[in-house]
Amino acid sequence: MDGGLYEHYPQYRKYLQDAVDELLGSEISKNVIIEHSKDGSGIGAAQLAAANSKYASKPLTE
C-alpha cells in the first residue's frame, strides 16, 4: 500500500486490518499482508506497462 495516510497514522493501519478481518473473517485474513510500499503507484504503472507491452506486437483484431 502506498500513501502518507498509512505511513504516518498507525491508527489507520489498525482500522484497515480490522476491516479486512471483518470482511474475510479472522482465519482467512491471517493470509492477507498489508505493507507500506514506497512508490507503489510508480511500480504499479511499470507493471501495467510491462504486461501491456507483451501484447503490443499482436494485432488487435484477428
UniProtKB/TrEMBL annotation:
Domain of life: Eukaryota
InterPro entries, alphabetized: ATPase_NBD, Hexokinase, Hexokinase_C
SUPFAM superfamilies: Actin-like ATPase domain (SSF53067)
Pfam families: Hexokinase_2
Domain Hexokinase C-terminal: 1-50
GO cellular component: cytosol; mitochondrion
Protein name, per record: Phosphotransferase
Organism of origin: Thalictrum thalictroides (Rue-anemone)
